[in-house]
Amino acid sequence: MKSGHLGYSAPEGGTYGPDSQTFFDRSCQEPIARLQGGPAGASGHRRDPRHQQVSVLRSSESLKALLAEKALIENQDLPITSYNYSAIRDRLLKQGIRVSVPTIITRAKALGCYQERPKKKLHDREVLTTAIGALIQHDASHHLWSPYAQEKWVLISSLDDYSRKLLYADFFKAETTWAHIRAMECLICRFGLPLRYYVDSLRVFRFVQYRDSFWKKLNLRTDEADPQWKQLLQSLGVEITYALSPQAKGKIERSYRWLQDRIVRTSALEKLASIEEVRQVLQQEIHRYNHLQVHSTTGEIPDYRFAQARKTGRNLFRPFVLPKPYRSTKDVFCLKETRVVNPYRRLTFYQEEIPLRHVPPGEEVAVHLIPNIDRETVELRVWWKETNVQSIVYPFKAFPRVHF
């Protein structure tokens, strides 16, 4: 099957497309009869026609769902490599067709739409927490989230380690430092300051010697230069721990696999193409995961476990308070740089010159950058001696070398 094809393979000599329902029903007759144990009356037992009609309908819809599943797995551009029979059950239930997972698996084996579960890789290091806010697992996943989309998007999410509740998840068109800062801002403003963040060694989170330097003679060792994301967390008193292996991030990786299975399948079947459409599916799946799904490890619904921990005092989130002298979260969750005022009392920022009448020449000022991705603008707020001395908005095109 060709990559990106979501139709079903027709028998030799036939043609079939996703809208050719008549041919599909005819091509399904033989597999359905085989699943039912042969043509009606072959065993000498006469079934109730109404029951037989319901059985044929269930078998037909199950077959369609399994073949759709196979088409998604064979599409190499999609992050789906295994069958999800629970997702098929939920999809059929929305159509008013009630079929159990064991029944679907039985039919899948008869059709060759079945894979043995791979053996789990064991690791001897496990992070254990005793309260919410003790550890926030934070990561990003870059994939083609719908076969009808024209580009890949990045899903950035944050998971509370103790309750397994997804505290944040959203799509971005590119993975940048600003995207991770926005995710951090949303989480902290809603839930408070956690004790620790748990991330990998991506350059957004960590400086690594020989990887993140452009110079042959290196003067900085690993962690001797702090990226913007790390500086921001340290200024808020939040610790950072780095995962040493992919297996060490298993808890958030499992949530990604769960979301990938559900979101990609729904987007493919409903032919969703835009990031706004797929974002709605993401919010639906987050609600299901947080409020309806019993977690296989904790044995509790994540939102219930989170609420109970807060109620019983198992809570390490600290209230977020704006540090002085700031009056807006813009000056906390932003990109920061420092510059020196020239003899003409102007600040040179890349190719732009910003007048600073009240700042003496030679003084060092802090420049806060707050991008607005939707409007493609960036606000520059200049601070000197705990005072905001200038605020100005530029279009992205004014800084062509800066990637927000």
Structure description:
- The two termini are 39 Å apart.
- The longest helix is centred in the first third of the chain and has 26 residues.
- By secondary structure, the chain is of the alpha+beta class.
- Helix 1 packs across helix 2, helix 2 crosses helix 4 and helix 7 crosses helix 8.
- Helices cover 33% and strands 18% of the residues.
- It has 3 domains: 91 residues, no CATH class; 176 residues, Nucleotidyltransferase, domain 5 (2-Layer Sandwich), CATH 3.30.420; 70 residues, no CATH class.
- It contains 9 helices and 11 strands.
CATH level 4 superfamily of the largest domain: Ribonuclease H-like superfamily/Ribonuclease H
Q: Look up the CATH topology of the largest domain.
A: Nucleotidyltransferase, domain 5
The chain-level structural class is alpha+beta
CATH class membership of the largest domain: Alpha Beta
Question: How many β-strand stretches?
Answer: 11
Radius of gyration: 27 Å
The overall number of domains is 3
The tally of helices reads: 9
Which geometry do the CA atoms define?
elongated
Question: What percent of the residues sit in helical stretches (DSSP H or I)?
Answer: 25-40%
The quaternary organization reads as: single chain
